[in-house]
From TrEMBL:
<keyword id="KW-0460">Magnesium</keyword>
<dbReference type="InterPro" id="IPR045864">
    <property type="entry name" value="aa-tRNA-synth_II/BPL/LPL"/>
</dbReference>
<dbReference type="GO" id="GO:0000049">
    <property type="term" value="F:tRNA binding"/>
</dbReference>
<dbReference type="GO" id="GO:0005524">
    <property type="term" value="F:ATP binding"/>
</dbReference>
<keyword id="KW-0547">Nucleotide-binding</keyword>
<keyword id="KW-0963">Cytoplasm</keyword>
<dbReference type="GO" id="GO:0004826">
    <property type="term" value="F:phenylalanine-tRNA ligase activity"/>
</dbReference>
<dbReference type="InterPro" id="IPR002319">
    <property type="entry name" value="Phenylalanyl-tRNA_Synthase"/>
</dbReference>
<keyword id="KW-0030">Aminoacyl-tRNA synthetase</keyword>
<dbReference type="InterPro" id="IPR004529">
    <property type="entry name" value="Phe-tRNA-synth_IIc_asu"/>
</dbReference>
<keyword id="KW-0436">Ligase</keyword>
<dbReference type="Pfam" id="PF01409">
    <property type="entry name" value="tRNA-synt_2d"/>
</dbReference>
<dbReference type="GO" id="GO:0005737">
    <property type="term" value="C:cytoplasm"/>
</dbReference>
<keyword id="KW-0648">Protein biosynthesis</keyword>
<dbReference type="InterPro" id="IPR006195">
    <property type="entry name" value="aa-tRNA-synth_II"/>
</dbReference>
<protein>
    <recommendedName>
        <fullName>phenylalanine--tRNA ligase</fullName>
        <ecNumber>6.1.1.20</ecNumber>
    </recommendedName>
</protein>
<keyword id="KW-0479">Metal-binding</keyword>
Length: 243
């Protein structure tokens, strides 16, 4: 009885293996970390589940502030929540280091927002400096230089006054996207003296500056993406474009 033999043509080209790539958000986080490490910032990571003291109280956020509301924040119980900002890492870092200090932290944060510029989970990079000679001018300059470095081209930048409980004075930095819209990408300011006092730093001897970068938004503007939510839909047709 004859046996059936499956022939293999060794001259045929091999099957192409799909090669993955770094997600554009992850790539942005890495680039931000590399940039600020050159300015002597150290990197620190922390938990996404935070207590209300670190997330609100020590950051000078009032008890009646709308961010504490259940309609804005994902509360796990009366004490713990999904952090709403990476700024809470300022408090954690100062418990293990003393000034002068430069720290940067990137990670996921959570808020109950959902539209083309907001998602319930998004990425934020928060940094701060506590030294004796820092100034608002220095804060402005390092952030504008960062944006120029990140976008690698001339961009239109707008600075406008704002309010944050943990900085005074405060500004927001907007960039102009290709569709003619101003997109807020950074909130920053000089650290409020109460924040320094809360972490046992003499506010008369030291001053601080702080900033928060919306990683998803600057990535959206750089790649000319109209809707932030596309990043998190796991659509391979979209993600393969970033190889």
């Amino acid at each position: 009885m004859l046996k059936k033999i499956n022939a293999v043509d060794v001259t045929l080209p091999g099957r192409r293996t799909d090669i993955g790539s770094i997600h554009p958000i992850t790539q942005s986080i890495q680039e931000i970390g590399e940039y600020f490490s050159k300015l002597n910032f150290f990197l620190m990571e922390g938990p996404e589940i935070e207590n209300d003291s670190n997330n609100f109280d020590f950051l000078n956020i009032p008890k009646d502030h709308p961010d504490r509301n259940k309609r804005s924040t994902f509360w796990l119980n009366q004490k713990y929540l999904l952090r709403t900002q990476v700024s809470c890492m300022q408090i954690r870092s100062m418990r293990c280091r003393r000034p002068p200090i430069r720290m940067i932290s990137s990670g996921k944060v959570y808020r109950k927002d959902y539209d083309c510029n907001h998602t319930p989970m998004f990425h934020q990079t928060d940094g701060f400096i506590i030294e004796k000679t820092v100034s608002f001018i220095y804060l402005r300059d390092i952030l504008i230089e960062f944006l120029k470095n990140f976008f690698k081209k001339d961009i239109h930048i707008k600075l406008r006054s704002s309010y944050f409980p943990f900085t005074e004075p405060s500004i927001e930095i907007d960039v102009l996207d290709t569709m003619g819209n101003w997109i807020e990408v950074i909130g920053c300011g000089m650290m409020h003296p109460k924040i320094l006092n809360n972490i046992n730093v003499n506010s008369k001897e030291y001053s601080g500056l702080a900033f928060g970068i919306g990683v998803d938004r600057i990535t959206m503007v750089r790649h000319e993406i109209p809707d932030l939510r596309i990043f998190f839909e796991n659509d391979l047709r979209f993600l393969k474009q970033f190889r």
